[in-house]
Amino acid sequence: MLSTKRKKPKFIISYSFIFLLWHFTSIANAESLEPSIEHIKEALYSGDNVSINNKLSIFIANTDSLSEADYTPISAKISLLLRETKQTTATQNVAKWLNSDVAKAMQKNVRFRWMMIISYDLMFFTEFLIAKNMLEQELEAIKTWTPTTNDSKVTQANLYHIYGQLLVRQKLVAEALPYFYQAEKWFKEVDENHPSIFVINIILGEAFLHARDYVKAEQYAYKALNTIPEGRVDAISYLNAILASALEQQQRPEDAMKVISNYLANPVDPRQDYFLYFCLVHIEVLRDLGKLKEALTLAKDTYTLAQEIGNKDYLKDASRHLGFLQAYFGNMESAETLLRKAMDSPSDIRQGAPINAYLDYTEVLEQLGKHQVALNYFRLYHNAYIEEHERINQITIANLELHQENLRLEQQQILSKAQLALAKANENRTQLKNHVFMWAALILLIIVTTIFIMLLQLRRRSHQLHEMAVSDQLTKLGNRHAFLQALNNPSYTLLIIADIDSLKHYNDHYGHQKGDELIKNYAEQMKNVLSTQQAELFRIGGDEFAILIDHDVPIDTIEQWMHNAIQQTKNEGFSKIGASYGIAKRSEISTDYDWISVADQRMYEMKKSNKSNT
Fold it and tell me: Which of 311, 411, 471, 510 is the most exposed, having the fewest neighbouring CB atoms within 10 Å of its CB?
């Protein structure tokens, strides 16, 4: 802290020196700045940071005297140089300088143009937080700015669009939507079919993807596909990835793969970072379709590409996919390293690890026998899952409040028009007042009805999310989370953990779909066997089940249950099925974790015994 305070006066003196130098420089024109561009280019390629910072600040200040036709292409030249020379630090310093008092003395149209250019450069270097902080300090000034030329109006719209995009990267979708809508309005004032509206539709698709409104995400993606400007190819892979992800999340993986295949038949996007996102979605779809060998090959290439590009968020996702697939094919040590990296490596604008990374890592830890660590990471997964869905509920509430505010503004507009009409027609004052009150009452009724309907929808959605959190989608039994909650009930005194012995046989010989049918059928037979008992059945893993009972049951009765469930499953066409199980009493142990461990260990002992007898 002390060193920062000592440097601050030097920082201000440097800016003052730049301002005085700029003030006493004769008015520049585009031709006179060409040598300066060459000097900046030399400094950028040489990596002389002190020279770069001074020259860039002076150069930008000097563009204040140029016409719009001159400073627009010059700013684009500087942007290209920054990217070619990978000058991340210089770009960060320019962003800080643009928020300084010296920069604020410039004309708004020139300064805001530079802020737009530098924002795009910071995003290119994945410095999203710095871009967001720079724009956040100027939001009110940008909003109240009244540009006079079409180029300046486009700059204003782009700044709002960029800020909305940065909010979406933090999954602050409700906060981002007003910026997109306002940017779209400004673009349409310049041109009803402005090319940037295409980009807004893409980002809105991404925004609703984060908000888990997959139908809207699909709609905006198709809307963007139908409005691609001529020659605009720099976001096509990104757009197709958003569409494929929206379809995949709606449990339509075949449709998602069609979108991916159609794009790969004619890949036209030159942006590596956008294509990287496309690859990550491609892996997700391949995993969903069970094409795991293809997914592994693509995951290795994608992980290498993510390392080359250096995007921290995408690298986390690439590590997660590759780690899961390495685990599936038995490379457990590599899988553990990659999945730990997916959770523990630093990110930029995104907070925390991807939720599914915790679940993938938990499965790997369990297979490695690290059950306590696995339990800890499963709890982290559970907490992250709940936080995610609470955030989505907050987005819904925020959208509801935004809609309510729009209705309120519409009501004010109608009342204002009614008051104007009343002032112009005094002879009809009484009649007009009645009309105003009637319309106001009707609008209020509509508002109340709309809010009531939306609250009912919100309650139903919250209930659905809760069901998803505690229910296994394949068997409709309680899942591992529901099981861990049920352990807190002291009335349960007996725990049985059962594991299907023959699932790998059916997966290897008939495919994973047949394996899922086996799990589902066995679960149904177990429910039938336990239907007359005071017992609760859960699916806590791939082929692993748990039974909680609130009374003592003889061992031979339990053996009969298990035998009956296996026999009935065989009668359904699964002749190779077998099962191992372990029984533990709550009175044997001191903690719930030990209770699970004892039952689990006894199940594995039976499994070993079954193998040795075959």
Answer: 510
